[in-house]
Structures are given as C-alpha cells and as structure tokens.
Amino acid sequence: MVYIPQKELRIKKSLMDQLTQKGLDGEFYKNLIEDYIYFYRMKDGLQKEIDNDGAIIRYKNSYGSMVTKKNDACDMLLKTNAQMLKILDFLKIKPDENIDMSDDDDEL
C-alpha cells in the first residue's frame, strides 16, 4: 500500500471538486490535477533539500578543492512553483480556502 499524506489527499479532492463544479470532467483535466500533485510532491522534496543542505552548498571540485555554489534545488523550486501556478491558472481554479493545511499526515 502506498502512503499518501492527508494534506495531499485534501488538496487533490478540493481541486477535483472544483473541476467538477466547472464541468471540466474530462480525462485531460484530471490528468492536469495529477500533474499538479506530482509537482506538489516535488516541491516538498526540494524544500526539504534546501532545509537540509541550505541555499549555498559546499562540494569538492574536480581538483579536490572545496568550493561553494548555489543549491540547484532553489532554482528548481521556483520553476516547480511557477508550473503549479500555470496549471491552476489554466484550469481557472484556486486551492480551496477551506482546506485545513495542518501537517496531520495520518495514513488512511
């Protein structure tokens, strides 16, 4: 059984409900919601990576010297968020304001 956090399930249900209310029941639209959820998971992973490693990371270059560079996850996070917003904009829906976004990631 695959674990899916409650917060993610609530977001998906809210977005699907809004699709239904707008009469957008087609598979194309449902697939866009799946894409949104995929990006949502990716965003969480990128945020955790930035929290763990920081915005600037140190690494050993090909000469064996320690150098710093920006964490690529920062740019990826911005692009992921932008793509999520584009999906919502295309569907003309907004995350439901009534969703409880607390971190109660209980398994169903």
Structural description of this entry:
This protein has a two-stranded antiparallel ribbon. It has 108 residues and is mainly alpha-helical. The chain has 3 helices and 2 strands. α1 runs antiparallel to α2 and α2 (27-53) runs antiparallel to α3. The radius of gyration is 18 Å and the shape is elongated.
Write the topology of this structure:
Elements: H1 6-21, H2 27-53, E1 56-60, E2 66-70, H3 72-91
Helix pairs in contact: 1-2, 2-3
Q: What is the distance, rounded to the nearest whole angstrom, between the alpha carbons of the first and last residues?
A: 10 Å
Q: How much β-strand is present in the residues?
A: 5-15%
Q: Approximately how much helix is present in the residues?
A: 55-70%
How many beta strands in the DSSP annotation?
2
Low-confidence stretches: none
Q: Any idea what the radius of gyration is?
A: 18 Å
> What is the H-and-E element order?
HHEEH
Q: Helix tally? A: 3
Structural class: mainly alpha
Query: Which descriptor suits the 3D outline?
Result: elongated
Strand order of the largest sheet: 1-2
- Overall mean pLDDT: 87
Major sheet characteristics: 2 strands, antiparallel
